[in-house]
Write a structure and sequence with these properties.
The protein is 69% helix and 0% strand. 11% of the residues are buried. With 123 residues, it is mainly α. It has eight helices and no strands.
Amino acid sequence: MIIPDSTMLAAYMLEKFTWIMENVRVNKKTMRANLDRTGGLVFSEHVLLFLVENGFSREAAYAIVQGAAMEARRTGASFRDLLAADARLRTRFPKGDLDALFDLDAHFRKIDFIFKRTLGRRN
């Protein structure tokens, strides 16, 4: 009986997911407020990759990002400001380089390509 039950469950889940996707409404202001409430922590992966691509070992980059993220969570300080104050980064990168990592629009530059690739071409 496992196969029929599993198939019925999968069909139900697909039906519910389809309903959710057809009826979802995005409140842009609320979404932005939720992102802002993280204090910039949503950009930690972007910062980590930038540091690795610019000469830091993965371990060193991880230690820098994790340290700043933990401090931001503990104190409520801005993740961006903590990174900007880090001497290891301040001496290697101009402030503009670090600020560019916190540009939300950079994450949406290829959004159309991603949707087309994910959902397929619809004519």
